[in-house]
Write a structure and sequence with these properties.
Arc Repressor Mutant, subunit A; mainly alpha; homodimer; 6% strand; 2 domains; two-stranded antiparallel ribbon; DNA-binding
Chain lengths: 158, 158
DNA sequence: TTCGATTCTATCGTGCACGATAGATATGTG
DNA sequence: CACATATCTATCGTGCACGATAGAATCGAA
């Protein structure tokens, strides 16, 4: 993400002035994610979750039936090599179960336990806290979300 | 970032409908960073750098004189526990040197080697490639950068 | 100037995150 | 049925990223 404009020719001018991280779109995203993780931390520590774990739990709370690892992977955009150990940790905490699908034994279905289901109720205050801390209006946040999602989808296509 | 609006009361209604990751501002940022890292990967692999390493190199290219670890830490918003091993790897690649400051022996000053300096010239095309791949105009990207930076700074304050 | 407090970097342990790869199951073609 | 191909999850190695902590150097106040 040195992805802002450069007027001088990059091929002929070997001393193009360097873009500082502060100038780059990529750095704003990168540092915002870390700041967001820090903002979530106290809320999630009370639940014993990390941020990626919370993200997977959110996917499960909003899912209809027990999704497969592949379905989760596509939804949260993480590889199976990331998800498998993460899901094993959530299983060890007693929040979900992992079971081979009888129809297709290659797939593993993830189902919430009662403890996993009931945890959702203890997360409902978090959204408002973060939104307030963001110092932005709900409309601004929604617009930002849509812009960032559009950027992400375009980058994935390219 | 379940940080969009909830109309039902979170205290009295234990079954608040769950926000899917796709609804959350935090997830858009989180997934956009991963997409951005993937977009950078082919360009950075040619240089033998990871994205965080590239970020630190960018900070050094735009810095006036040899900054300390603490100065870099504040600029790229990473802890010394992250920077120290990262800087050691860049040192092992011959891109920079780490030396104790004579004035204040607690501090370590980071200076680019010739190889580190000259690498900058080979990065000048990357910005344009990513900007094009983003499918957004320069004005949109700059506006997005400023919005995301504002969000980050507000979250850091809270 | 002496010693308590602060500053600064490094170390350690845990948990992502990914590419490469393996291994098991399923599918399709003959 | 046989066998090549594809799909799906898991494993392994590398590199972040952070909190907690340690240890050295500096600063400050009596």
């Amino acid at each position: 993400m040195t992805d802002t404009a450069q007027t001088s020719d990059p091929q002929t001018d070997p001393k193009t002035p360097a873009l500082s991280p502060q100038d780059m779109v990529c750095f704003s995203l990168y540092s915002a994610v870390h700041a967001m993780t820090q903002a979530y931390r106290p809320h999630l520590e009370a639940l014993g979750l990390t941020y990626p774990q919370y993200l997977v739990m959110s996917a499960l709370w909003s899912a209809g039936e027990a999704p497969t690892v592949g379905m989760l992977s596509r939804q949260v955009q993480l590889e199976s090599s990331t998800l498998t150990p993460l899901l094993k940790r959530l299983e060890a905490m007693g929040l979900l179960t992992r079971r081979r699908d009888a129809e297709d034994e290659r797939q593993v279905r993830i189902a919430l336990t009662d403890a996993g289901q009931s945890m959702q109720g203890r997360t409902s205050h978090i959204a408002g806290c973060i939104a307030e801390q963001s110092g932005m209006s709900v409309d601004e946040l929604l617009a930002l979300r849509d812009q960032v999602s559009r950027l992400r989808d375009n980058l994935r296509k390219g």
